[in-house]
Design brief:
Elements: H1 18-26, E1 30-34, E2 37-40, H2 44-48, E3 56-61, H3 71-80, E4 95-101, E5 108-114, H4 122-126, E6 132-134, E7 140-142, H5 152-156, E8 163-164, E9 183-184, H6 190-193, H7 200-208, E10 213-217, H8 224-231, E11 247-250
Parallel strand pairs: 3-11
Antiparallel strand pairs: 1-2, 3-10, 4-5, 6-7, 8-9
Length: about 250
């Protein structure tokens, strides 16, 4: 029996798939994360605030980073509402301190590790829903409304910079949306940046007098961070992967 020819159907709005919808900006919706806390999930609204002429980044001088200092970690925790626990396998770690030892020379350094805000972020490439995305100004975020907790991004990140939220949440910050069963990571304190401020980790480091962290626009040749990067050597973690990270380290 000869089957009738199939007709090609035009793509109509109600047939647009989930990923197309999310990428179109439909992700800017509200989300209730806990009783009494309803926030705008990172999505269209967060992207709208980004200036494509800007690329935000960090420069960290490990010579100025004290091994016994975790002010940057504490500052981030207080600012964004995640709690520092004792289990790195289950607790949130938007930023953490890492100690390194050169096996040949014995030199020891300590440095903060967080999302590196890659120009070519692997987390975005593998996300099946578009929840992981990069703003036009280089800040990489997770939209909590569209994250399904698959954790592909955690596996793809070479810096182990993302955490899965296992615990029930309380006392959340309205500007730092979180959600049980979703993935999260450093946002460069995007809520501060969009208001002309600096990330909480940088502010906390400055308050100690160490001055190990510098934040600014990598594309602006007159910015302090761009001048510093042009003046002395720095490296990005895993430069061999050609991710062009927005976080750079000097004296590593």
């Amino acid at each position: 029996m000869k089957l009738p020819a199939l007709k090609t159907m035009a793509k109509v709005p109600d047939q647009i798939n989930r990923r197309d919808f999310l990428k179109s900006g439909g992700a800017a919706v509200t989300l209730t994360l806990a009783p009494g806390i309803t926030v705008m999930a990172f999505g269209g609204e967060a992207s709208a605030a980004a200036n494509p002429a800007t690329r935000w980044g960090l420069l960290i001088d490990v010579n100025k980073c004290a091994k016994d200092c975790d002010a940057c970690v504490t500052g981030c925790s207080v600012e964004n509402g995640w709690k520092m626990g004792g289990n790195p396998e289950t607790d949130a770690q938007w930023i953490r301190k890492v100690d390194l030892t050169n096996k040949q020379t014995g030199r020891e350094v300590s440095m903060p590790m967080m999302c590196q805000h890659c120009e070519e972020p692997p987390c975005v490439d593998v996300c099946p829903t578009g929840a992981s995305f990069k703003r036009a100004d280089g800040i990489v975020l997770v939209d909590k409304h569209t994250c399904i907790g698959c954790r592909y991004c955690m596996m793809a990140c070479p810096f182990k910079a993302r955490s899965f939220i296992h615990e029930d949440l309380e006392d959340q910050k309205s500007y730092a949306p979180r959600g049980k069963g979703t993935v999260e990571s450093c946002t460069l304190c995007v809520h501060r940046v969009d208001e002309g401020g600096i990330p909480a980790c940088v502010e906390a480091c400055d308050a100690t007098g160490h001055g190990a962290m510098m934040f600014g626009d990598l594309k602006d040749p007159t910015s302090d961070i761009a001048i510093a990067l042009a003046s002395y050597a720095s490296v990005g973690l895993r430069d061999d992967l050609r991710l062009n990270t927005g976080v750079r380290y000097s004296n590593l």
